[in-house]
Amino acid sequence: MSDALLAADLLAAAPARLGGMWLRGPSAERDAVLAFLAEEFADRPVRRLPVHIDEERLCGGIDVASSLSAGRRIEQAGLLEEVAGGLLVVPMAERMSGMVAGRIAQAMDAGAGFALVLIDDGGEEEVPPVSLTERVAFWCDFSTNPAVIAPESDLSRIPEGLGNTGGGCTVAAQDRQTLANITLALGIDSARAMLFAQSALSLSAQIDERDSITDDDIQFVARTVLGPRATRIPQQAEEPPPPPPPEGEEEPPPGDNDGEDEQHDPDQLDDLILAAVLASIPKDVLARIGEGRSARRATGAGGAGRKRASQMRGRPLGARPGLPRGGARLALIDTLRTAVPWQEIRRQQEGMDAPRRLRIRKGDLRIRRFEERAEALTIFAVDASGSSALARLAEAKGAVELMLAQSYVKRAQVALIAFRGTSAELLLPPTRSLTRAKKVLGELPGGGGTPLALGLSAAAELAETQAARGRTPFVAVLTDGKGNIDRNGQPGRAQAGEDALAAARRFAQSGTQAVVIDISARPQPEAAAIAAAMRARYLALPRADARGVERAVSALQFGKAS
Amino acid sequence: MPFPFSAIVGQDEMKRALLISAVDPRIGGVMVFGDRGTGKSTAARALSALLPPMQAIAGCRYNCAPEEADRCPDKCAEKKGVKTAKVPVPFVDLPLGATEDRVLGALDLERALGRGEKAFEPGLLARAHRGYLYIDEINLLEDHLVDLLLDVAASGENLVEREGLSVRHPARFVLIGSGNPEEGELRPQLLDRFGLSVEVKTPQDLEQRIEIMRRCDALERDGAAFAADWAEADAKIVKRLAKGKKALPNVAMPESTLTDAATLCMAVGADGLRGELTLMRAARAFAALEGAKSAERKHLRAVAPMALRHRLRRDVLDETGSTVRIDRALTELFG
């Protein structure tokens, strides 16, 4: 029987203790797990949660439109109340807003006792809100290891409810020691993960009607609960897991950021368990570990971005006609103001003996609008090739840190792409965190050829995906404009120059605001040509330092120097 | 039921900071930096269960104290036969993505629709009055909400002027925030509002991790027995708190301690006077908690990192963490 199905079985037995599951990537097995859960929860409430649910529907409240037409208060129950003790399935969880995630997390902490199933088809960078993945025990990634689905599913069932009251087989002291060892070796910081592992361990023994825990149980828990949460690869004496390093580049050091973590002796861990853990660590975890943590989508409205009209929050704008639905709030005063002049006429239409009451028609309803500002994002694309690489990168790094230090004023995020050798690499995904930036930018590689075309394409791609999420990107390219690696990673100045111009023209089509900063000692025409093709500004800043770059970019992006 | 405060494994600094803020609420709240799942909210909730109940007008939606009933928007002072009652100290959770309406309070739609009355429905700030307002992931909170909270925390009252309503009510609460600085920085203005700050990590030590699992397992298997096991230890803390609160006004503040505080603040470059003030208050509250007659250097040392950690001028290009800088200064100055 597959891990995911066993996990689903345990979850059905003790939803309150295990929180739920996170199912990543489409697969036949995922469908099987969902079907199985639907069957298990057949006699309990089951709800699907659309990602863009509004707060009233989620938490309950007054149904304004029906209350108005009925003339009395009509309540609607919140979805989170309805699903208590049942199963809450969230498709497209990676697109969930912070408001919805926050409410669900709160309900789980308050002991609503439902099983949360996060279905996620996101790409590398898109994950469901961390506040929720943190609160579900099992992380099953079908996109990296599409498991073969076992046809048999004679799952025994724990009598429902027993699991929630702390039933399950007794966890012996040595099993606890093993779990603590694994969490330390994998660098898992959250105590929740450890406690989930403990609950899953005792339940998985009980489901087989055993009264002691075996290595199989521990391996299952290591694969489904602990392995996927690893932030560190345990040192293994025999065979270190071979990371696939991109060509011509050292792999990043594992994220041991604080010297106080002593390396735990792996010999304390059973080799079999360690093997199970290693097998369950996602392929991309090394890359992720290199850059700190998996990227999270930032929530919160930003600053100097384009303005978006919002119906929920922000600076109040005027009211406009509309129905109070989908999160829009009724602007009562404006509604009454619209309705008042018509009262007498409406009463006469109904006849002179009509009762004296307020007559509000649908057309009178006004809703409130707020102005929400999209978040600004500055993308640095830095040429890290050749001899000037180190200086240029150091200045770009300094500029990034200065911008982040200012970011609480400007409410802007910063990202950094470095291109060198034969590839362009996103070193720092969009972030507002100075702490994180410092960690990532500590070790910057430099040297090699100049794949300018690749760098521009990477910047354009990042800018477009971020614009699709409602941010306003601004790209700053630091280069001398002399590409010598074409877009296929082949050396050759002529071809590389053409590719770079083509990439620049494609960039222009995306309409992203940009600047090309030439920081070579004697500015060259090539960089100006690239800037023209990108429809970007061109700045020659010989001998620019971090502060100069930061000031120039801020001035162009925000219209004034900091 | 909350996890017993005394049963929380490790996290001594966070527990100390929370107790100090309970002894002297004027210190102005605690900011907890740390990853998810390190017991931040567990500790905050456990603390609220330890506080002795407070006197309030029965049924008042603003938790108004008997002595401030004349300022209550519900006109508690003018009602006939008003009773005071002992109510638990409120602990309000502000969820991420809360709207302004929920925080400030808004027009009471039910009464507006049903009876055509323009009435105010109090929000979370009114519920948190005289208690705790806990904000998880405060670094991801939206700017306009942050501004609003700063304003209320500074003035101690919530002033609502919207939707044709004009309401003001007292809103004094201890702010407890938590967040992970790697996911977004906090604005200095907001950080400065917090009296104390602590950094938490899950214990990196095998024994403590095993102990965490053991205790949570015991709680799941038999919650009542677990609570009974820890009731005595919790009762001791309640006693300590009550004693500390009572002793606080009489704790002396010798000249030498004041000098120490000023020297330390100058040495680490803590901005503004608020640092010194908080350092003094925290040292006094800690001395009261310890049952000491006067605040001495050792009390100052114990609270210096939490009172100053978040107030140091940040040099972008300096890599040393603030905790390290404070420890270094303490060693240099006081040996």
UniProtKB/TrEMBL annotation, chain A:
Show which residues constitute the signal peptide.
none
Ranges of compositional bias, category Acidic residues: 247-266
SUPFAM superfamilies in UniProt:
vWA-like
**Annotated region described as Disordered, given as residue ranges:** 228-266, 294-324
Pfam families, per the entry: AAA_lid_2 (PF17863), VWA_2 (PF13519)
State where composition is biased (Low complexity): 313-324
Taxonomically, the superkingdom here is Bacteria
Question: Which InterPro entries does the protein's record reference?
Answer: ChlI/MoxR_AAA_lid, P-loop_NTPase, VWF_A, vWFA_dom_sf
Q: Boundaries of each VWFA domain copy?
A: 377-556
* Official protein name in the record: Magnesium chelatase
TrEMBL record, chain B:
Q: What class of enzyme is it?
A: ligase
Quick one: which pathway? Porphyrin-containing compound metabolism; bacteriochlorophyll biosynthesis
AAA+ ATPase domain mapped to chain residues = 26-204
Sorted keywords for this record are: ATP-binding, Bacteriochlorophyll biosynthesis, Chlorophyll biosynthesis, Ligase, Nucleotide-binding, Photosynthesis
Q: Which domain of life is it from?
A: Bacteria
Enzyme Commission (EC) number: 6.6.1.1
Say if the entry is tagged with keyword ATP-binding.
yes
Read off the InterPro entries from this record.
AAA+_ATPase, CHLI-like, ChlI/MoxR_AAA_lid, Mg_chelatase_ATPase-isu, Mg_chelatse_chII-like_cat_dom, P-loop_NTPase
**What does the record give as the reaction this protein catalyses?**
protoporphyrin IX + Mg(2+) + ATP + H2O = Mg-protoporphyrin IX + ADP + phosphate + 3 H(+)
Q: What does this protein do?
A: Involved in bacteriochlorophyll biosynthesis; introduces a magnesium ion into protoporphyrin IX to yield Mg-protoporphyrin IX.
The family line of this record is: Belongs to the Mg-chelatase subunits D/I family.
Please identify the protein, giving its name as recorded: Mg-protoporphyrin IX chelatase
Name the species this protein comes from: Blastomonas fulva
